[in-house]
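Appendix C reproduces, verbatim, an entry submitted by the partner laboratory led by Prof. M.T., so that reviewers can inspect both the input and the predicted structure.
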Amino acid sequence: MEQVTFGVLGPVVAWDGGGDLLALKGPRHRAVLARLITARRRVVPLPRLVADLWVEPPRGAAGAVQTFVADLRRALEPHRPPRTPARLLVTEGPGYALRAEPDTVDAWRFETAVSDVAQLPPAQVVERLREALGWWRGPAYAEFAQEEWARGECSRLAELRLLAVERRAQARLDLGLASEAVPDLDAHLVEHPWREDAWRLLALALYRTGRQGDALAVLRRARTTLADQLGLDPGPQLRRLEADILAHSPLLDTPPGPVSTTARVWEQAASAYDRTVAAGARARLESTVGLLRNLAVTGGGGLEAAREHRLAAITAAEEFGDPDLTARVIGAYDVPAVWTRSDDAQQARRIVAAAERTLATLPARPSHDAARCRLLATIALEMRGSRSPRGPRAAREAEEIARRLDDPALLVFALNGVFMQSCTRAGLAPQRDAIGAELVAVAARHGLVTFEVLGHLVRVQARSALADFAAADEHAAAADRLAERHELPLAGVFTDWYRALKQAAAGRTAQAEAAYRAAAARLEGSGMPGVEQGLLPLALLSLRLTEGTPSALRAAQRMDPADDWGPYRPWGELFSLLRSGRRADVRAALHALPEPPADLLYEALSCLQAAVALEVGDQAALAQARTRLLPAAGQLAGAGSGLVTLGPVDRWLAAVTAALGRRPSGSPS
């Protein structure tokens, strides 16, 4: 029997032996599973399950629970022969029990990990807790956290999670990695300001990085916070730490013991750089951009921090009045980008303006061609999603220079710009596939790992659009392998979404919805608002329009009014108006609808327009949608994003073509 694993550190899910999400049907099915997991292999009587699932149980509640259990058994053991007893979700005495092994439930593994680190050396503690904290996908038992039967377990697991963060910080301090402990502790205290030990660890970490003033400020903040929120004075450990810092007590120094070679090299090199390179030196700016580039590919807070400081570095470079320096500072940030919508449109415009100013003042000599290429590639990247002709023109010019100079690093950067400008109309997946293939080939040949990962992700998108999921699977697996080996966590965000798309394309609606929700949970905090905003509602609506009864009105009725549609609001509002029955307003909104942005969701948004136009029989909107979708004939609508799909473009074209000249009753079937 394939081993099924269970996840409760976030939304309640289950995976089969191949790592694919199992379809657990509705919320009460998941509630039964979650309730049995909280029982820890013990039997939960049927009356208890009924009482836990309903405040006022309806007639037939016991029979409903039995149905939920039968459905769960089919999902958990799909290959069990008929009339043979279940081996995982068993009937015993008056109720049911889940006989999951200890290592198959993420919460149970997490508890073991937190307990086991007490016996491990600091380096292993850091690694073990890094892995264990990575299992969390959101609050424990997320959708059931307020249920009486889950509350105690949620509180216990939340406390263990906080303890794990603090134990990892202590282990980093023990290893001499004080600077690495600071960001996590800072974020930890924003959410949990009552944790006295976290205040102590943060102040100690700051002191050990030479920031005595900041350490004392943290202790003052702790005193104020504890007094204001809890009415308490700091405990003896915090008071003693403050006295020791003021006295420069040797007890606060890094304890003797093995310090990792990596940590030692980093600290020594950073210290030497600080002593040697003057604070106002131009070299510091270029070094800063190198650090930001490395920081950006770590994801989450690293990407946000890199984005935050990048513009400051460019501004500082311009103040020197040296176009060569500014060109190097702007062009050195060659961080691969796979999503064709900007995370910060205002910042992107300012970077483009700086690049254009620098191009205008850069000497027109062959010795500056490489710098010019990087500036043009930057413009192409930062103008992603816009319809200005400048973006494609800059991409072409950068590619021409890179090929002429025969520089692999320049070429992959320029090709990234070409990719970003390859969404000006529908149906361009074959061209993007060719770009991805060249990125993989050049980057692999010259050891440019981040661009090799980019190439694989581009090909995942393109092969999905072409319905070639066998090839897309290979590229997703290659991207995951490289990302794991080279610590590039953001790649996994996109491969997670791809696997959800694949479930949707196969018509496995329940599995796709669960996969989309899990992928969205991982996307939170990834530092990519341009990807995250509005994506989950868009994915779920797309799923509703392809799940077998794809009426736009029925899809609209299943939308959540509270959803934040972000940049996709004009298309989401069409369905909201449709649900309200205001058909005249729907037609007005259709006519006011902008052309979809020049990005990877062009076909998907065009299909949403078509779906609503079919519902209300709007001939002008139908004709417009048909014109926009025609170049993508033979492809899967939206799948070129690698994230969502609305099924074959040909099906939409057939429905729209048939509806032109007559009033339809619904969307394509």
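Residues 274-492 form a domain with the Serine Threonine Protein Phosphatase 5, Tetratricopeptide repeat fold (CATH 1.25.40.10). Additional entries are available on request from the coordinating office.
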